[in-house]
Amino acid sequence: MSDKQMKARFTLAHPGFTLDVDLQLPGRGVSALFGHSGSGKTTLLRCVAGLERPASGYLQINDETWQDSANGIWLPAHRRPVGYVFQDANLFPHLSVRRNLEFGLKRIAKTARRVPFEQAVELLGISHLLERLPDRLSGGERQRVGMARALLTSPRLLLMDEPLAALDLKRKGEVLPYLERLHDELDIPILYVSHAPDEVARLADHLVVLDEGRVTASGPLKETLIRSDLPFIFEDDAEAVIEGQVERHDAHYDLLDIRLPGSTACLRLAHAPLPAGRRVRIKIKARDVSLSLEQARDSSVLNLLPATVERWFDLPNPAHCLVELQLGDQRIIARITRYSFDGLNIRSGQPLWVQVKSVSLLAS
Ligand SMILES: Nc1ncnc2c1ncn2[C@@H]1O[C@H](COP(=O)(O)OP(=O)(O)OP(=O)(O)O)[C@@H](O)[C@H]1O
Fold this sequence. Notes:
Layout (H helix, E strand, L loop, with lengths): L4 E10 L2 E10 L3 E5 L6 H9 L6 E6 L2 E5 L4 E2 L7 E4 L11 H10 L10 H7 L15 H13 L5 E5 L7 H17 L4 E5 L2 H7 L2 E6 L2 E7 H5 L13 E12 L4 E5 L6 E5 L8 E7 L3 E4 L10 E12 L5 E8 L2 E8 H7 L6 E6 L3 E4 L1
Parallel strand pairs: 3-9, 3-10, 7-8, 8-9
Antiparallel strand pairs: 1-2, 1-4, 4-5, 5-6, 10-11, 12-13, 12-15, 13-14, 15-21, 16-20, 17-18, 17-20, 18-19
The chain binds adenosine-5'-triphosphate (ATP).
GO cellular component, one term: membrane
Keywords: ATP-binding, Cell inner membrane, Cell membrane, Membrane, Molybdenum, Nucleotide-binding, Translocase, Transport
Organism: Phytopseudomonas punonensis
């Protein structure tokens, strides 16, 4: 991995709201901006796009400086190579999908084009829609066309402002795999605004949490989701995201074995075959993890894995607590009753067995 980076420092005052951020983000993959309504997510994207001009600002995207107020550098919005995807794809209603896409493409000199038309169309799976007018597309299809159009502007950065927010659950499910493809197959960093923890868990590599215009957390997704000073782990749906590599597929039982880095054990889950060696992202909810001191040999639970207790936290509900566990090189969390916690005499550094009742594959 190279040390590609984005640096964004902005101080911008609106009446009643100040954005004051200083971020260092990976220069590849998806960085999610998460926060309550009004926390400043869109304002931050607008600063990055050059649509706001803060009194003090610095923006570096990999090896390019787009803005440096201390040195009089300011790249205006129309010269910033960003692709913007909004909640609504905003396609020209009188132009076919093909002409909408060509509109984005024509703005870029042939020699500067980084994403060929065919690649964008193939990545978003829209070749069969090219001759249609936008009003003959579903919401999900419109968003995919909007994303292809953004790619065809040859961006060095994609800005996505809640691109799935206007879609129902089914349409969201249709678009998410395409977003994953953009993430996996293109070397263009994405800043992704979302309210939905599920989307963030599935897509993001890095998580930024904003509150009242300030950054309250910024770090790799896996670590940030389970930080005890952030609200995520106190949710009913608290979860950890870990990564692994497909080891094998058991065709007889239709089970996939996933090797976890640093662990001797594999996770098993019901899933169609995937090629050995494929890296996958897995979500484990805290409430689906139980703990035992011995390796249960007569359980129907597929996943019984050795782990070590790191630490624990109280929860607002006094009947429960959360235990953070080291599983190979990664961390997961278990929500158990305080009764069980005392009964098992949990202490930090303790080796024990985790039983994981349900595991979901998020991305491959
Ligand atoms: N041009 C402006 N003038 C004055 N206030 C503004 C302006 N633009 C944004 N704000 C204020 O800045 C704050 C942050 O807005 P912003 O849209 O960035 O939040 P957000 O986190 O994206 O919210 P949401 O999730 O609801 O889209 C809000 O209080 C908003 O009213």
